[in-house]
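Lab notebook, bench 4. We co-purified these components, and the gel suggests they stay together. Before we commit to crystallization screens, I want a quick structural picture of the whole thing.
Request: model the full complex, all chains together.
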Amino acid sequence: MPVSDGVDSKTFPELLRHASIMDQFRISYPRGPLEKPPAVDADPGRFRNTALFMKMYGDCQKGEVAPRLASLPWLSKTWGRSIRITSVNGVDKQLRAVSAEIEALPGNIKRAAYPIAGTYNCRAVADTGQPSPHGYGIAIDLNTAFSDYWYWRRHDGSIIYRNRMPEQIVAIFEKHGFIWGGKWYHFDTMHFEYRPELLWADQ
Ligand SMILES: [Zn+2]
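Here is the predicted assembly.
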């Protein structure tokens, strides 16, 4: 596949809709605790090359993603309902490991991780019209009662950052290759998605 499309002058809205594989790396993802709210339009991981993701995980509109989903129990001792995530690239194995580690956290912290709001869902991202990572089966949304979303935090032309997702949960996801939507200027703090290239590329 072509890594670059040779266009260096894309605007932020263009990058959200027409990212090349190289464009995915334009904004580096900060590992570990956030020291300050993300800068304007710093959304590491929201640039996705649709062709690459469809090739890896399939096109959910064509029914290619669902047959590759695996079921696993989420927080089996605490909540225990079955969730579905793709088996491609071993994402299901990574999420099993995430579940086991969150299970060992204190009750008041792991409360943010259940009930979950969803995993696989063949839909588009509301503000870009692009395929959602939920449609590839690589994303999970945790407890909505602990979540904050940029759209509801707009004030006088800017966005006021807010987060209630515990740092311990974020650290466990990152260890297993999932980025967190709480590190985006356009934050979505219940959202985690399997993007190892952003976490492990320079290690
Ligand atoms: Zn999500």
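The first strand starts at residue 69 and ends at 73. Worth comparing against the SEC data before the next meeting. The helical segments are 12-17, 50-57, 91-103, 107-110, 167-175, 196-200.
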